[in-house]
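Sample intake sheet
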Amino acid sequence: MAEEFELNALTPLDGRYASRVAPVRAYFSEAALIKYRVRVEVEYLVALSGAVPALADVFAGGNLAKWRGVAAQFGSADAARCKAIERTTNHDVKAVEYYLKERWDALGLPAVGKEFIHFGLTSQDVNHTAQPLMLAECARDALVPRFEELVAALKARAWEWRDLSMLARTHGQSASPTRLGKEFAVFATRLEKCVAVLKACDHGAKFGGATGGFNAHCVAFPGRDWPAFGDAFVNDVSGGLLRRQKHTTQIEHYDDLAAFCAFSRRHALCRCNTVVLDLCRDCWQYVSLAYFTQQLKAGEVGSSAMPHKVNPIDFENAEGNLGIASANLVHLAAKLPVSRLQRDLSDSTALRALGVPLGHAYLALGSCLKGLGKLRVAEANLSADLEANWAVVAEGIQTVLRREAYPNPYEALKALTRTGKPASKDDIRAFVDALDVPDAVKAELRAITPHSYVGAFDASEFEPTA
């Protein structure tokens, strides 16, 4: 049955890639959304019992544990019951309220508390506390750790390959040599900084009644400071991950979510995706240049027609999924903060798709990590490429000659290296031998080779700790 579902799934996240995105599904499936709503409603009534005198004793004895158990033990059968109720109500949050009232009766809890379930709330108080909490916890528990795993993998390669010289390419042409480890250090430091921004993103919740002013709460119990109650509740139910937005309409204004996804100076998740995309394309190119071979797995086929092929499919898979993720994130960031007057429903259906870009991003990170794990450095090819490009030492030679006040050194090297045929090692040596400079300077210039002209790279920050 599971295989049949995957074969007939509308999206690859729930079909072909279902097992690879399971950690994200735990936060963004329909069942997960219902579970988070139940969690918010359950904890809201617990908090309300401390603010409303009539509820002071409702959770006496073992009643508190029974009530919290409704959320803690919520499973697939409970989610199915909520959906069954929704078929009658045609309202998903009201269905959760009715489900909780059923559970209240079944547990034999005091009748006085039953009508305080969902007391004074609009659906969006529940949704816009549940959904940002889903996002914050998914980021903390699934997405950020996967990004950090990739950062660690890049740092390990920066250290391992710190002394391997490699021909660089700018504009697709041979350029001053670099170190293979340094190129991976570039991505490690870029991604680490972007992930730090992602982790620092705020997550806002809306909790303030039908139009944001706690109207129903205030008319029922005018002596309470309901905004302060809301602040404390949101902080407590989220374990400090969320902060309540002070001034709202019926819905969250989504500015924090937009910053997390794509817009504003943070551009957080899209920036992370872009760095990984850049990494994948470079790794793909290094494989194309034969700087890397890929570890083979018995039985795998690279091409249905060409038996010799071992394709960099993991980096290609990651690239495709990162594009889908970021495109969706940009749309959500642009759409969600815009709502007609105090609210319209267009945000609701769009927000249900938030798990889609997170799923594609998570999938892409897994593919990228898998691709990195297959890479094996072809040191002989790195060396041969350097040896075939002696012209790249021209920068170093002309710079030393500038230091020595040699006349027109740039032009002299330009004439040597732009003749229409590659400048060889012998051509470079003959040029140096013919220079009118002291022998010590000639010896210095002869020591410049494509293998040694790699500049400075301090890899100490990437050294593994004991």
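Comment: The chain has a mean pLDDT of 92. The CA atoms of residues 32 and 136 lie 14 Å apart.
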